[in-house]
Amino acid sequence: MARTCLLVWSCCLILASPNVVHVLSTVVPGVGVNWGTMAFHPLPPDIVVNMLKDNGITKVKLFDSDSPTLKALSGTGIEVMIGIPNNQLYILADGIEDAKDWVKENVTAHLHDGGVDIKYVAVGNEPFLSSYNNTFDNITFPALQNVQKALDKAGVGDKIKATIPINADVYESPSNKPSDGNFRKDVKDVMVQIVKFLQQNKAPFVVNIYPFLSLYQNADFPFEYAFFDGSGKTISDKNVSYTNVFDANYDTLVWTLKKNNAEDLKIVVGEVGWPTDGNINANNNLAKKFYDGLLKKLAAKKGTPLRPGQLDVYLFDLIDENQKSIAPGNFERHWGLFRYDGQPKFPIDLSGKGNDKMLIAAKGVQYMRPQWCVLNEENKNLAMIANEIGYACSESDCTSLGYGSACNKMDIDGNVSYAFNMYFQMHNQDEGACDFNGLAMIVKTNASQGSCLFPLQLAGAGERLKLAYGASIIPGLLLAFFTLM
């Protein structure tokens, strides 16, 4: 799970240092970004790092420890949280030796002069999600312990801390009031152990908070309460008034920690953001509204009622990721401040001053040939369209065609063309990927319609993970085609 004002070159201060480039940032202090790479053709790391620097972003959170990514971050002075995927927790929980090997390969190998400024190691990602059915409950804490011990043995544990990015569903409040918050009963024991360990090692509690999901998952959720205008519902709790769900959620965690003898534990918001497509409430306008309010709040250092002052926050996400699972919703592939190709989506002022300027786009991006795959108007065999559209969407990404999404207002020809083009582009514009039993044809004119972008594939992607889109057909999409025919 986009944009405005940013660093102009005249505002950058480059200090001559042997290896490190220091950038005078215009980003709100304490604010960083998540950099996920679950895309069929992700942007090259060096291009992304230059984009971070151009926009004054000095903190980044990763979901792995990919060597090319860390190499690109070397010498930049950008503070980094590297990640350990959940599927690696088993081996790290098994013993300290594996953890020591992991730290040697993924941490200390990058700490040379002019290397990477690693501050945190994220052990897993939201491993206690209720949807995981307790899969990682018994291995996450041992993995955390072993990684921190390995950092200590490597002599870097005083500067680099292991922690766990945790979804906000590990705590709950039966009344929806923060003061009634506590850990979920099924994970309470392990969470208390983790909290105590974080305290002992002076590591932060990292929590992911998503006001959008509160709105998405509850049809009765008050719309304005997801934002920061203060114009909607207010919740009163022990003489404290809450005007937005972010503050209420954060302070529910504060109360939870207090009840478990960890009142002073540092909190870092590991993910917070707003998607721009894939749902009726996921669009550029609402994303801008959300980020404008959030960044102004962070710039003012208001904190929350129970934790006033500066908050440490990582915005989610830097770039759209079109290989993410859409099990949570079609919006999952559209959290980026930037499109897949590094183009900013909307104005956002990372300084929190409210200026309407676009972020600086990625430079040096190369695309494949300017050609698109569309419906062949001379061979519109409607009886075959449903099967072909289903196949195209199952092997690509049709999430922008869903109800309320960016491409939802096209006619049936436009919908079919969009699906065909997504398949064509994600298969590297292979001529055989634009056939569909004679229903499709390649054109040289941009097929985009209005706000619906028909993307071009990025060039030079190299070896990629195998597509895993088996569940990506949008519910109701095929029904819509049958209805229109």
From TrEMBL:
The keyword Cell membrane applies. One of its GO terms (cellular component) is side of membrane. It catalyses: Hydrolysis of (1->3)-beta-D-glucosidic linkages in (1->3)-beta-D-glucans. It is found in: Cell membrane. It is a lipid-anchor; GPI-anchor. Its main location: membrane. InterPro entries: GH, Glyco_hydro_17, Glyco_hydro_17_plant, X8. It comes from the Eukaryota. This is glucan endo-1,3-beta-D-glucosidase. It comes from Dovyalis caffra. The lineage of its organism: Eukaryota, Viridiplantae, Streptophyta, Embryophyta, Tracheophyta.
